[in-house]
Please model this.
Amino acid sequence: MAKLTKLDDIVSLCKRRGFIFQSSEIYGGLASCYDYGPLGSELKRNVRNAWWKSVVQMRDDIVGLDCSIFMHPLVWKASGHADKFADIVTVCKKCNVRSRVDHLTDAPNKMAEGLAGKVCPSCGAVGQFTEPMPFRLMFETQMGANTDDAMTIFLRPETAQGIFVNFRNVLDSTRVKIPFGIAQIGKSFRNEVTTKAFIFRTREFEQAEIEFFCAPGTDEKWYEHWKDARFNWYINLGMKKENLRLRQHDKDELAHYAKGCVDVEYKFPFGSGDWQELEGIANRTDFDLRQHQRGMRTLNSWYEKKGDLSKIELNSESEDYQKGPLSYFDEEGKQRFIPYVIEPSAGIDRSCLAFLVDAYDEDEVNGEVRNVLRFHPALAPVKAAIFPLVKKDGMPEIATNLYNDLKKYFNCFYDEKSAVGRRYRRQDEAGTPYCITIDGQTKEDNTVTVRERDSMVQERINLSQVKSYLREKLDI
Ligand code: GAP
Model:
């Protein structure tokens, strides 16, 4: 029976079974940084692959890209991140801890309005806050070995800009025609003021983003298309519909580049059980390509000001910007324009957390609690486990041969230790959809038992049919 799980149960299972560990744990850990263990790295790779398969492999209108994390600093001036990508924060005068103004809650019996009635989440003091101020979220670092030519660069806070600055390269090197998209998966970094709930909000994370370029005027149609397509991606990977919803942003929530935005939200089991953002789908209009055309016109000033972004103003847009270097020529309509962009932007880590939470279940077997991860087969870290019932009578040899054959096609696991019931439980907890057991009967009639994780139903099939059986059941 499904139940709303606590995040603590998931965190504990993740550590116990090698899904996710605290980073640098032997040194006491590094806040908000996590490492994916043997099972977790398989899960994460499966989430990435499922995304890539659905948006690049299965579609004829999207191509892939893999950009560097370090980019020219002017990219972030043009995109607006250097000046505007900041949270509004306040500092508690009692404990010196910085908080996001939009995350502060009211004191129960608040007497005053505004910050005067707000509680410090760190020390509990009421109304001890400084005036709100912006706090830049981009990490800075130095590039270059010599002090003379070293320059300050940023760790990208989104993968999207790498796509915009390669728009021309992709147009010139492929046969794509509008409407088309460019997809990328990669790490992004934000010096978040408050990190949250395990891998939900961290300072280093992975994004999976599509910039879908279309003709102005067709953007609303593509926005609708992507809302449905991305919502259904989660459903098709087994996520329960009742835990997912779409939420339209209010005008005052919109990022500086967006005309409209909708979030795919998941009912995460933390906080007050609130809905939280899983993915954003934004209509970025022609903002970014136009801004990068301005950025390209500002390069001289960047050299003159020795790369000091605070002293650089972006050059204004040329009057015929629609014919600029990042424009697109539409052969059919015989016109040039700057494309509009619809951006579905997902988080790989956040998706992993949602898939873990959604798959986690406890049921009762023979009076004992069974922990089970009911992953969709495409996401399950291990697809099949192979067991000899006992470590004798030729069973390990048959099981090893089967394992060596199957592992060429699926990620498999061989286990001959402890009672078979315990081995089943371990695989249930890892989310393995099928366990195959070689027993005394196998030598007599060449059959094995296949046990399915969710129903725990066992059936006997011929040893020679195991591969095709798994292929069909796993649909991979
Ligand atoms: N290019 C648009 C963009 O970056 P966003 O809403 O800031 O939009 C998109 O981020 C997605 O990236 C989020 O829905 C979330 O899944 C993921 N994400 C953003 N910040 C994150 C963080 N600090 N930790 C984990 N995932 C994050």
In short: Residues 38-57 form the longest helix (20 residues). DSSP finds 14 helices and 25 strands in the chain. Residues 158, 160, 190, 192, 201-202, 205, 207, 209, 277-280, 343, 345-347, 349-350 surround glycyl-adenosine-5'-phosphate (CB under 6 Å).
